[in-house]
Amino acid sequence: MCHVLIIEDEALIALDLQEMLELAGATTFSFAETESEAVDAARQHRPDVIMSDVMLREGTGPKAVELIQGEMGPLPVIFITATPAACTIYDPPAIVLGKPMVDTQVREAFRLVAPR
Amino acid sequence: MQTGDLAQPTAFELDIAAIERIEAVPTILDVVCRTTGMGFAAVARVTEDRWIACSVRDDIAFGLTSGGELKVETTICNEIRESREPVIIDHVAEHPEFCSHHTPATYGFQSYISMPILLPDGRFFGTLCAIDPKPARLSNPETIDMFRMFADMIAFHLDAQAQIERSAAILLDERRTAELREQFIAVLGHDLRNPLASIDAGTRLLARVPSPEKAATVLGLMQSSVARMAGLIDNVLDLARGRLGGGLTLQRAPVQLGPVLRQVIDELCASHPRQEVEAVLELDAMVDCDRGRIAQLLSNLLGNAMTHGAADQPVLVHAVTRADVFELSVSNAGQEIPAAAIERLFQPFARGAVRPDQAGLGLGLYIASEIARAHGGSLSVASSPMQTRFTFLMPLV
Hints:
The structure holds two protein chains of two kinds. By secondary structure, chain A is α/β, with parallel strands linked by helices. Helix content of chain A is 40%, strand content 20%. The longest helix of chain B is centred in the middle third of the chain and has 51 residues. Chain B has three domains: 155 residues, Beta-Lactamase (2-Layer Sandwich), CATH 3.30.450; 53 residues; 143 residues, 2-Layer Sandwich (Heat Shock Protein 90), CATH 3.30.565. In chain B, a hairpin with a 5-residue loop joins β5 and β6.
């Protein structure tokens, strides 16, 4: 079992991520479009992996992840952003992928961090 | 948002300040007086209709100080402005021409010398001149060359100052353009890539052969991404025209704006079905405007109000033609815009100062204000904890 929280305000990207990750072994998903929705979704169902956009319609992905990890401890995160160059600071070696996404990169990154 | 120009110095004040900045001028006037034995010397700015002293040495109580003015038609400098040649009179009473000239009679001098100050680009600035009630020995090469050299020196300094000012202005302009370009690239790199990434994701979803229902949803979302990209490109082009080019161009014609505004409101209501909009359109008169641009202005204001305003309270649109003005306002409830953000609100890429918003480039209000300006009108904002209202006013001619 692997539950993934997808923080992404572009519906198509969220759907695409869901399908990619299903093929890579993810079993269940929560979706959030804003910072506060992300925190709520994580509280409802603790994710095993977080896939997060950076700029959200309200708030930011990194801020949401920080809040979630503050409550639940370290969780594997993959950031997906249109501006990867602006995301060099996230730790522990946070994986940052650029948009548009490359299917194989997403799945490879996911397999790297997903619990077996 | 208008500022008065009361603080702007006049051209003459700038000229006087420019002469004051040349440290050598008092020394020049001192040397001129001592070597010729004359009691009054000045650097004067001479134009077609004014003679103004920029720097003065007065040992004979002539009574003129820096900033003082003589009627230009009473001076000889006015003639020098036209001839661009120096005038030298050792002794007025013995001079065939000037013994009966009105200027020596008016000012009571016997000796006179005036050298034109010609800038390197050929423009006439004014004169370096000296007078005295007694005759003086001036018509000799030493004196004339000294005056010429001093006049050239003053001209050289004035030109150097002007060049430094021009360079500073160019530098400032370049810096502003560079800042704008940086923001432009950063924002464009992010904002256009998002809908593009959406379309890319959509093609992948379709490639996995979804159910017809899901395919229809995906296609709808892809189309809205395409529309968003088209909108972003339009905004970027407007920015390029407005800021980097010669301003927005309008195709004006008298138009009944009611249906135009109504269509914008209907379109935005369709894409924000949960947001209530109350519109009051009291448009008795035709408005001479670019209908497409006015529609764009309302669309930008209404789109902002729907995105940023309180979702549980209606957005109000009010359009009215009065005797000599067309007024269009959009109001929403919700958070007050902080005063610091209001200052930057109509600048390009202002959104970061308010709230990050992925729906646009932060160009909407800038473009709306450019549209207002192009119509000879104004766009202003008033924000309180109760309400934020944007008002477009344009004169009806």
